[in-house]
Design brief:
Shape: elongated
Number of helices: 3
Helix content: 40-55%
Number of domains: 2
CATH class of the largest domain: Few Secondary Structures
Structural class: alpha+beta
Strand order of the largest sheet: 1-2-5
Length: about 90
Amino acid sequence: MNKGELIDKIAAHSGLSKVDVECIINSFLAVSTAAMCKGDKIKFVDFGTLSVRKYAARTGRNPQTGAAIKIPASKRGHFYTGLELRKKLNKK
């Protein structure tokens, strides 16, 4: 599902206009991005947690040449599913 499809589904489910839903989603993304850039976690009870993980610098290999390359330290977004979501995903 892409952003446009998400907006359509939320608008149909909530009765809000697509313009309002798009504004809410854009605001959520902006606030979430700012919080994660500060190192904060965003928790949704029973759904999951958005957080930032730090990865140390390391040496890797170029798969084409086999030459050693330096991979710099970086930060990446991570989503950890909550218990209720995991239960629903694994329901048989």
